[in-house]
Every structure is written in structure tokens, then in C-alpha cells.
From TrEMBL:
Protein name as it appears in the record: ABC transporter, ATP-binding protein
Gene Ontology cellular-component annotations: plasma membrane; transmembrane transporter complex
Domain ABC transporter intervals: 5-228
Gene Ontology terms for molecular function: ATP binding; ATP hydrolysis activity; transmembrane transporter activity
CDD domains, alphabetized: ABC_MJ0796_LolCDE_FtsE (cd03255)
Keywords of this entry: ATP-binding, Nucleotide-binding, Transport
SMART domains assigned to the protein according to its UniProt record, in alphabetical order: AAA (SM00382)
One Pfam family of this chain: ABC_tran
Family designation: Belongs to the ABC transporter superfamily. Macrolide exporter (TC 3.A.1.122) family.
Species of origin: Pseudoalteromonas phenolica
Origin: domain of life: Bacteria
């Protein structure tokens, strides 16, 4: 299996006035293609910080992050957003869909940023919405959808550019248990089809479904468990 992510001794220190918060302390991690990793741990332990660094939404204070053989330290701002657009899909707890756009337009956004043709956008968006079982809602706006449906559209948007890595932050956090279960089943199915997933979750039930579980505590990796390969 190919290594997709290597992080070595990542530290993240937030500075706010006189106060320094050491949110991540010497975290090292390798992610292979095809893995499904759940990151859990108590509130404030650094889960979202780690995910934002993996997603190139934030930078580490020090340490190394290599994504798809690219040393991210060498990237300027434009290159970072290009690498993010090409290699990463990000799903937020609060969906982050744009309500003035339709479902189709929301999912099309990453491809429009890449300058893809209208024809390619149409076929990729329709394929992705079918994969999350949201065909038939193309012209709705997000506010006309249930929370579970909005999260499925957000997953379609994250996957439409065929990223190498899907990062999901508390994907079920704003959903009732039925919709949460459905989103989790969708993520498991996407992983079975080959998508590499890193998911932050508070929910033990969901973290146990991942093949590999990482527990953070006070910004450090506390325990790591991996499902035995039969
Ligand atoms: N922008 C910021 N500025 C200052 N401190 C921050 C910032 N973001 C996070 N922190 C601090 O860094 C630590 C880790 O925060 P983080 O959001 O990564 O935790 P978390 O495990 O995702 O928490 P939760 O489960 O509550 O979402 C916390 O102490 C938090 O207060």
C-alpha cells in the first residue's frame, strides 16, 4: 500500500496575547491509501487542529507534513490552495454549504475553481450526487434539505474532484441518530470503494467502525488501535 500522508513531530502553538496553547505536541502519523482512521479524544485535545493541518487550512508551528509526496512546507499560498483543491476533500460538522447556490452549484464549486469544462462538471456532479443518493434534488437550495441530506451534499462536494484524502470533522455532530447512522454507512461504503478517510468524532460507536482508531489527549497521541487484518 502507498503512503499518502506522513507527518513528523508536528507541534501547534496558538498565541493569543500572553497566552500560549500547545494544541499539538510532537504528533507523528503515517496514513496509507485506503485507510479509514477515526480520531477521538476529549474536548480541546487537538482533534480539529490536527484535521485543519492535514487539510492545509492551517499550518503547524513546526514539524513536517508530506502529502502525496509533496513537502507542504515548500508551498506558497497559491500552491497550497491548488494542492488542497486537488488532493483534499473536507467535510465540516456544520455542512458549510452556500445557501444562495443550488445543490448542483454547491457540488460544482471545487471543479469550477479548477477551471473544468461545463460538460465535465455536469457529469462529475451528477455522478457524485448519485453516489450519495441525492439525485432529484439538484435544483434545491441547502435550506430546503434535511440535515442528513445537506451532509450528503457536502460529502458529494468534498469528493467531486476525486481527492486522495477525505477529511471529515464530526460529520454526524449536527444530525439525529438515524441520519448520523446513514452518513456513517455512506462513509464506510466510500471507504470500501477506495476513498481514504480521516474522521474526527466524539461518538465511540462511530469511531469503533473505523479500521484504525487514534485517541488524542492534551495534544498527544494517547493510544492507537488497528483492526487486525484477517
Ligand atoms: N484559533 C485558536 N486560537 C487559540 N487557541 C485555539 C484556537 N483553536 C483551538 N485552540 C485551542 O487549542 C486546543 C485544541 O483545540 P481543538 O479545537 O483542536 O480541540 P478539539 O479536540 O477539536 O475540541 P472539540 O472536541 O471541543 O472540538 C484547545 O485548547 C483550544 O482552546
Amino acid at each position: 500500500m502507498k503512503t499518502l500522508v506522513t507527518i513528523n513531530n508536528i507541534n501547534k502553538i496558538y498565541q493569543q496575547g500572553q497566552v500560549n496553547t500547545h494544541a499539538l505536541q510532537d504528533v507523528s502519523l503515517q496514513i496509507q491509501e485506503g485507510e479509514f482512521i477515526a480520531i477521538s479524544g476529549p474536548s480541546g485535545c487537538g482533534k480539529s487542529t490536527l484535521l485543519s493541518i492535514l487539510g492545509l487550512l492551517d499550518t503547524a508551528s513546526d514539524g513536517q507534513y508530506v502529502l502525496a509526496d509533496i513537502d507542504t512546507k515548500t508551498l506558497n499560498v497559491d500552491q497550497r490552495s491548488q494542492v488542497r483543491n486537488k488532493h483534499i476533500g473536507y467535510v465540516f460538522q456544520s455542512f458549510n454549504l452556500i445557501d444562495s447556490l443550488t445543490v448542483f452549484e454547491n457540488v460544482a464549486l471545487p471543479l469550477e475553481h479548477r477551471g473544468a469544462s461545463k460538460k465535465d462538471i455536469k457529469s462529475a456532479v451528477e455522478k457524485q450526487l448519485a453516489a450519495v443518493n441525492m439525485t432529484g434534488r439538484l435544483d434545491h437550495t441547502p435550506s430546503q434539505l434535511s440535515g442528513g441530506q445537506q451532509q450528503r451534499v457536502a460529502i458529494a462536494r468534498a469528493l467531486v474532484g476525486e481527492p486522495d484524502l477525505l477529511l471529515v470533522d464530526e460529520p454526524t455532530g449536527n444530525l439525529d441518530s438515524q441520519n448520523g447512522d446513514a452518513v456513517m454507512q455512506l462513509l464506510l461504503e466510500l471507504n470500501r470503494q477506495g476513498t481514504t478517510i480521516v474522521m474526527v468524532t466524539h461518538d465511540e460507536r462511530y469511531s469503533r467502525m473505523a479500521k484504525r482508531q487514534i485517541r488524542l489527549f492534551d495534544g498527544k497521541v494517547l493510544v492507537e488501535q488497528q483492526e487486525a487484518v484477517a
